[in-house]
Design goal:
Strand 1 and strand 2 (about 15) form a beta hairpin. The protein contains no helices and 14 strands. By secondary structure, it is mainly β. It has strands at about 5, 15, 25-30, 35, 45-50, 60-65, 70-75, 90, 100-105, 110-120, 125-130, 145-150, 155-160, 175-180. It starts with 5 loop residues before the first strand and ends in a 14-residue tail after the last strand.
């Protein structure tokens, strides 16, 4: 059997159908946990996952930039974690509101995950819109919006203590405490005082 090659007028040689173009990466993100309190010392992690859906070929120049909604900032320390290739640079400065990746790369059929700690300065529901990831194969679709619920501080009520009351030395006083969490009354894990 003899292979037949066609030579075009421009001098290119073709031996069959053209190779399919590489697909752009896919992009997802999530807050973990998706509910925190204002100024919680254990901030939520905002994680991004970028995937190369191609069975062969490395994606290069993988990059994205995400600006957090007003009221959210990168924690100090930032808790920055993850890489997208040895040359990828993640920028997540504490106190700022922009998280970005430049110069990343992804081997075929692989993923990379980046995680950054985020804190809230006010209560409310915040929606992050991560946009798209660019690459040597083009840009992904925009990542799906992600919501973070930030609860106000709980309220503490003390009962069985009278203002300006006088107690005798050695007398036992037994105050009672109750806590309430606006917007999420069942999620308090502890209500204690000393």
């Amino acid at each position: 059997m003899t292979a037949v090659l066609a030579v075009t007028a421009l001098g290119f040689v073709s031996s069959g159908p053209a190779a399919a173009a590489a697909a752009a990466p896919t992009f997802t993100s999530a807050f973990t946990p998706s509910e925190i309190g204002v100024g919680d010392s254990s901030a939520t992690a905002l994680g991004y996952t970028i995937t190369n859906p191609n069975a062969s070929g490395t994606l290069s120049n993988v990059a994205f930039s995400d600006t957090l909604p007003a009221g959210l900032t990168i924690d100090n320390p930032s808790g920055e974690n993850g890489t997208c290739g040895t040359a990828g640079v993640i920028t997540a400065n504490p106190g700022s509101s922009t998280i970005s990746l430049t110069g990343g790369s992804l081997k075929a059929a692989s993923s990379c995950t980046i995680s950054v700690a985020v804190i809230a300065s006010q209560a409310g529901v915040f929606q992050d819109n991560p946009g798209a990831v660019s690459s040597s194969a083009g840009a992904s679709a925009n990542g799906a919006p992600q919501s973070l619920t930030v609860l106000p501080p709980p309220t503490l009520t003390v009962a069985h203590i009278t203002n300006n009351a006088k107690y005798t030395f050695g007398e036992t006083v037994k105050p009672t405490y109750s806590c309430a969490q606006a917007g999420d009354p069942t999620a308090l894990s502890d209500c204690s005082a000393s």
